Amino acid sequence: MLELTVEQISMGQSAVDKSAALHLLAERLVSDGLVADGYLAGLQAREAQGSTFLGQGIAIPHGTPETRELVHATGVRLLQFPEGVDWGDGQIVYLAIGIAARSDEHLRLLQLLTRALGETDLAEALRRASSAEALLKLLQGAPQELALDAQMIGLGVPAEDFDELVWRAARLLTRAECVGSGFAGVLQQVDPLPLGEGLWWLHSEQAVRQPGLAFVTPQQALRHNGQPVHGLFCLASLGAAHQALLERLCTLLIEGRGQELCRATNSRTVLEVLGGELPADWPSARIGLANAHGLHARPAKELAQLAKHFDGEIRLRLIDSGQPAVSAKSLSKLLSLGARRGQILEIIAEPAIANDALPALLAAIEAGLGEEVEALAPVVEAVIDVMAEPELVAPAAGALIQGVAAAPGIACGPAHIQVQREFDYPLRGESLPIERQRLQHALANVNHEIEALTQRSPAKAIREIFITHQEMLADPDLTDEVDQRLRQGESAAAAWMAVIDAAARQQEALHDALLAERAADLRDIGRRVLAQLCGEADVPAPEQPYVLVMEEVGPSDVARLDPQRVAGILTARGGATAHSAIVARALGIPAVVGAGDAVLLIAPGTPLLLDGQRGRLAVAPAAEELERALAERDRREQRLHAAKARRLEPAITRDGHAIEVFANIGESAGIEAVVDQGAEGVGLLRTELIFMAHQQAPDEAVQEAEYRRVLDGLDGRPLVVRTLDVGGDKPLPYWPIAKEENPFLGVRGIRLTLQRPHVMESQLRALLRAAGDRPLRIMFPMVGQLEEWRQARAMVERLREEIAVSDLQLGIMIEVPSAALLAPVLAQEVDFFSIGTNDLTQYTLAIDRGHPSLSAQADGLHPAVLQLIDITVRAAHAHGKWVGVCGELAADPQAVALLLGLGVDELSVAARSIAEVKAEVRELNFEHAQQLARQALLQGSAGAVRALVETR
Ligand code: PEP
Ligand code: MG
Q1: Which of 391, 419, 411 is nearest to 572 (CA)?
Q2: Domain of residue 452, CATH code
Q3: I want to staple 429 with a disulfide (CB 3.0 to 4.6 A). Which of 100, 435, 686, 787 is the partner?
């Protein structure tokens, strides 16, 4: 997303003409790495199609669709020209904003700028600005629109006196984030102004964040200073935002129409009278916008000019945007809509001109407003039957369900189903006393439930969460607001959910991790109360350890998971590399994921037996089966115990074949503990996780210290480091990357670092410096082409001439099928391969590894993936090179024998899996494993491979 910052601004530039200014801009965009050489031609071509002069001394040069390919990253650069540059037609530009954008991302920037464009003497101020900060302030500090919508209106609110009415109005402004919490106090110091007809006015500028107007009417008759109080306006005043409204209000009072406001029974009437919303009976027409880049400057200008031909009001709004309609005659207002191709515009015109204006504007928009447009596809009205989901049925007793093995171990216990349900409830209540009683009853029940949960929870962190929930239930602010809505006739459920939703949104809007958690808590508690109100209370968790059944488990659910009570996890969605699996492994809870939506229909309390190693679930199993499984669990526990005792010994098969077992890590801290868990080295250091842990890009010295810490901790054991693997779905907050339709197939891994060689060079330097004479292995992620490897190698070799290292190997990750198929060629040049089975599987099977329903099928034991591993190992060994596997597959107990049999030399797994993997190897016979691998290569599916391993 394009945002403005001071770093993007160059002050005091000069250019003799527009062409020279464009040259300067292009140079700046190129040197900052946003675009490639040649973008200048795009800027020039765009100006030739039509000037990018926006108004108020601002121009926004940008490229054409043909030069979009030259954009490396979305961004803007601003040049101030205090002497002005003639942009054609005598239009003088003091600020040129050069935009590098691949699609319509610059619409967002235009939205920002339109606020500034409304300023009367902005051009002059831009010319005179003496610092980048001042200039930025001019662009951002422009007047804000007055907030006035249905949320700001309270009709018939309970108030005992005038002060309480003032307090109610102030609350509406606080809730809309127009004012800080001190505003109500400020208003008490201000003298209210009677406007006549029982209407009153109060305003202040203190504690105001954005301008807004609240209007409240009292439920019961009130008087103040001997005069009646029928309605009160409270203005949070900032600049001149309220001017137009004040003028309308004066006209209204002069016309003697004040009573229309006091008698209004709904907020829509108030808004219409005040002009905040258009009268409902004005004619309107709708049309989809077909312009490829939305309603940007050129088509918006056309539209505004056409609208100006009509002598009357015409407004435009975006359907479903929640934004109010804007004047179609104002270019800046039209741009502020940020309308994109495919969005529906509604044109609303004053009745006197509607018959002429609406058809004319519709025709102009349909014709493309001066641009060539490709018509939008017709909207499909009917839902196509064949797309309907097949009906699901709950699995019967005795059913065996195959899911994905996510965390090893055997668990049994009653099912505890946690599914987010949809609730139906009436919006209007029966009567105030009935709805009040319903709410109180529901609140008391939930409070009681939480009390019981708190008592039962041994973990302090979990108890604290529940205590917070109880506090929320008792929050007078929340209950007050709900009560206000009940008085207006809403049902308890509708009022409760509206208040919870508004409060949660408020927290979420602050973009603070802690407050976002609070918002999640609010929503959680909100749903519990709603369930009570709808008579569908949550089923309490069973007393004994249970199998938790959910759609997916997100990391935030971890806090609610009590490993003492959750014996196993079963999810309907997700795969072995999904969050649920990672969370479960981290907690050591057996888990099966991606078992299909039918498991959500299992009746609560049904006994379940879950085998996290085989990915299998038995529903209400027979007694003998349960007994067998429990005996196996005991054996497994003993095995684990024994494995742990031998964790520091090497992994050697019965017939003497050794395989190295290394650790995957993502941070430098705790490396000693990793070694203590049996790691013979680090097989994958995910350096992007180190980058992500920093607020800004770690410089060379910071990186060197991080890498040194790992090497020190390894004490002579090898370190395999992967260079930065960001981009695509893993962006770094401080490293803007152009948005992509298909990030997994986009600029990620080596593709990205080769585009930003200075980042890669500084990482490589830090690595070489940290290594000295210790064993360092560097590998590059996502290599798919020989040329990528060669460029990366050349860079290391150049740096090696400056920085001496004595034990360095260079390799690549095999994550893309093209790299595996090219292994016979690559093996001649690399020192090693490390197979990233997570990505290799997703690219081979064409299944997004994070896909909510498909990722369960992304099984690395698919014979197609095994074939690619086989090709890689054969190629490497033919040239005397070694091969590791560092994807999740390396820790999959059913995969170890096969990877060993295929000839893999090293397995790199999460530290807590090392002992178990080593123990597994010790039980194998290399020759048998080779035979098994050869058979696996001949199978037709991952399921068949797993079955083969089972029966070995
Ligand atoms: C992989 O793709 O297997 C891998 C190890 O890399 P990551 O999971 O970090 O993409
Ligand atoms: Mg990967």
Answers
A1: 419
A2: 1.10.274.10
A3: 435
User: Closest by alpha carbon to 115, among 80, 79, 139, 87?
Assistant: 139
Pick the atom of ligand 1 nearest to 889's CA: 3
pLDDT tens track for 121-162? 778 888 988 888 888 888 875 556 777 777 788 888 888 899
- Active-site pick, 106, 230, 293, 296: 296
Structure tokens at 927: 């020759």
Q: Are 154 and 131 found together in one domain?
A: no
293: CATH: 3.30.1340.10
Task: Considering the candidates 234, 262, 412, 886, report the single residue annotated as catalytic.
Answer: 886
Inter-residue contact 569 to 562 (CB < 8 Å): no
Q: Ligand 2 centroid vs 639 CA: distance in angstroms?
A: 31
Q: Are 170 and 193 within 8 A, CB to CB? A: no
Cα 664 to averaged position of ligand 1 atoms, centre (Å): 10
Annotated active-site residue 886? The verdict is yes
| Catalytic-labelled residue, pool 62, 242, 293, 862 | 62
Of the candidates 297, 296, 282, 290, the residue with the CA atom closest to the CA atom of residue 347? 282
| Alpha carbon distance 202, 231 (integer Å) | 11
In a domain, 643, yes or no: no
Nearest to 919 by CA among 681, 588, 682, 678: 678
- Tell me, yes or no, if 178 is annotated catalytic: no
Band of the pLDDT at 111, cuts 50, 70, 90?
Answer: low
Asked whether residue 207 falls in the same domain as residue 224, the answer is yes
Stretch (H or E) spanning 185: helix 183-188
List all residues whose CB is within 6 A of at least one atom of ligand 1: 684, 686, 725, 815, 836-839, 886-887
Indicate if the pLDDT at residue 238 is higher than 70.
yes
Report percent pLDDT > 70 for the chain: 88
- CA 113 → CA 54, 61, 336, 719, distances in Å? 9, 14, 8, 50
Task: Indicate if 552 and 414 belong to the same structural domain.
Answer: yes
Question: 628 Cβ partners below 8 Å, 6+ apart?
Answer: none
- Residue 575 domain-assigned? yes
Q: Does residue 83 lie within any of the structural domains?
A: yes
CB 809 within 8 A of CB 718: no
CB of 496 within 8 A of CB of 482? yes
Same domain, 801 and 922: yes
Q: How far apart are CA 619 and CA 628, in angstroms?
A: 15
User: Residue with structure tokens 């290799």?
Assistant: 840
Confidence grade of residue 390 (pLDDT, cut at 50, 70, 90): low
Residue 367: both structure tokens together:
């014709």
Q: Which domain holds residue 760?
A: 652-950
pLDDT in tens, 738-756: 777 788 898 899 999 998 8
Residues 692 and 741 occupy one common structural domain? yes
Q: Report how far ligand 2's centroid is from the alpha carbon of 860 (Å).
A: 13
Best of 579, 684, 686, 845 to mutate for ligand 1, by most ligand atoms within 8 A of CB? 686
Q: Is 30 helix (H, G, I), strand (E, B) or coil?
A: helix
pLDDT band of 381, cuts 50, 70, 90: very low
871 near 821, Cβ under 8 Å? Answer: yes
Q: For 4-88, where are the E strands, in sequence order?
A: 9-10, 53-55, 58-59, 75-86
CA distance 101 to 110: 13
Residue 815 has pLDDT above 90, yes or no: yes
DSSP per-residue letters across 246-269: HHHHHHHHHTT-HHHHHT-SSHHH
Same-domain pairing of 332 and 357: yes
Q: Which residue has the higher pLDDT, 455 or 808?
A: 808
- Number of structural domains the chain divides into: 6
Same-domain check for residues 323 and 269: no
Span 758-790, pLDDT tens digits: 999 999 999 999 999 999 999 999 999 999 999
Residue 887 Cα: closest atom of ligand 1: 3
In a domain, 376, yes or no: no
pLDDT at 388: 42
